[in-house]
Amino acid sequence: MKPLYVRVNPLDNVAIVVNPEGLSSGSVFECGLVLKETIPQAHKVALVDIAPDGEVIRYGQAIGSARRAICRGSWVREELLTLPEPPALDRAPFAAATPVPAPPLEGVTFDGYRNADGSAGTKNILGITTTVQCVAPTVEFAVRRIKAEILPRYGGVDDVIAITHPYGCGVAIDAPGAEIPIRTIRNLALHPNLGGEAMVVSLGCEKLQPARLFAIGEDAPWMVRLQDEQYGGFGDMVAAIMALAEKRLEKLSRRTRVPCPASDLVVGLQCGGSDAFSGVTANPAVGHAADLLVRAGATVMFSEVTEVRDAAHLLTARAADADVARALVRELAWYDAYLARGGADRSANPTPGNKRGGLANIVEKALGSVAKAGTTAIMAVTGPGERVTSKGLVFAATPASDFVCGTLQAAAGMTVHVFTTGEGTPYGLAMAPVIKVASRTTLARRWPDLIDVDAGRIATGDATIEEVGREIFELILDTASGRKRTWSDRWGLHNAPSLFNPAPVT
Ligand code: CA
């Protein structure tokens, strides 16, 4: 393979090395550029001489300034860059460059499960929600037995899952921020892939009473309360959970897939283990798929506050109107304050893996990350754990942590998850299928039984962003319809729900 680099934007004065083994000092690119030192794959090479304090530009934006002179052809490493200040939120341009809607894609459908609340699922799962951690092992015990003894009799139901979490008691339940874990649990329980109807196991004495989650009375139909006097010990509790589960399975097994318009689809986008290729291959390809989904009428969520914070000025400009831009600033400012309370800031985000993968800092990571969100207008903004109700592109504010973001996007109503990765992760969720898109062909080849889409072909010129984007779009529809299974579903790799609780534990 001849020496190859990718430059994203004509304004960029750095590019990233494509060759899987990296390139040694003295390598010559087609344009005549000679490497001054050995540079690993996905790391940056200076395309021109950069003066001390000169801006280092990638994605057409400054990702930092040079601590000292950087020669043309040398390796632009993390330690050579200073981190710029984040864009000021009080000067963010509101709806200054709202994109014009692209022509709609008519007639796009998927085969989903229609729910009474109007939502449509992509899976047919019995989910048992817990109100408190105390009941979790009991519910997990019951779920093992339900899967072994009852589920085989109910064809058409994909899975039985326990929605467990550490919340529910020993928490300051009325403190600011407590509404986040509470509404997350409620919205998970009512997820479209669980039939849009909750089955709950409560202990009895916990702070998070079921009535706080759902508008139900003492005799709620789909609930077991373990401390009720009628249960004489563990065997009775498990029997009660199993009996209720069987009733739900009967109901769920009567459901069949029906054609649903793409407007019933809710797709959540996320990245994890990003590298310098993520923003060149996987994220732009997912961005193209996002544009197609939006044109087809679907809801597409992007999230991960700390990874978009440095692109705030680009996002507020893309808002559909000033109210949406204001809501975006509100969520980002809330998160700034949340991080400041812990003595952290957004520079705490990049991991050792990100840096090994060529990402110098959070600015570079953020600019690559927002490529996932495509090019359409941002139609709405929701807080962590809130249910998304708007169509089109939505910013659902969440932390960037893979499991926390995935859990909050599920609470927001996500029925298909698209996850881009550079370093690789076997991540998956029980509640919604997770399509994993690799930023590099080397990863896709090394993990052929974990990665669903290889976007690395874009860097080598073997496929275009549009081609891979179209492939992802089709795979989303096939996965939503149950025609294709993701690798994480085939292996049953399902990360546990992970709540975001910014409020005190007592
Ligand atoms: Ca993430």
Short description:
28% of the residues lie in helices and 17% in strands.
Describe this structure in words.
- It contains 14 helices and 20 strands.
- By secondary structure, it is of the alpha/beta class.
- It has three domains: about 80 residues, Archaeosine Trna-guanine Transglycosylase, Chain: A, domain 4, CATH 2.30.130; about 130 residues; about 230 residues.
- It has a seven-stranded parallel β-sheet, with helices on both faces. A four-stranded parallel β-sheet has the order 10-9-11-12, sandwiched between helices. Strands 1-2-3 form a three-stranded antiparallel β-sheet, with no helix packed on it.
- Strand 9, helix 1 and strand 10 form a beta-alpha-beta unit.
- Helix 1 crosses helix 4.
- The model has no long low-confidence stretch (mean pLDDT about 95).
- The site of calcium ion (CA) has 7 residues, from strand 14 and helix 11.
What topology does this entry show?
Blueprint: E1 5-6, E2 14-17, E3 44-46, E4 55-58, E5 61-66, E6 81-82, E7 109-114, E8 120-121, E9 125-130, H1 136-150, E10 159-163, H2 179-189, E11 199-202, H3 210-213, E12 223-225, H4 234-253, E13 258-261, E14 266-271, H5 282-295, E15 299-302, H6 305-308, H7 312-317, H8 322-341, H9 352-356, H10 362-369, E16 378-382, E17 392-396, H11 402-411, E18 416-421, E19 434-438, H12 441-446, E20 453-454, H13 465-480, H14 487-491
Parallel strand pairs: 9-10, 9-11, 11-12, 14-15, 14-18, 15-17, 16-17, 18-19, 19-20
Antiparallel strand pairs: 1-2, 2-3, 4-5, 5-6, 7-8, 7-13
The chain binds calcium ion.
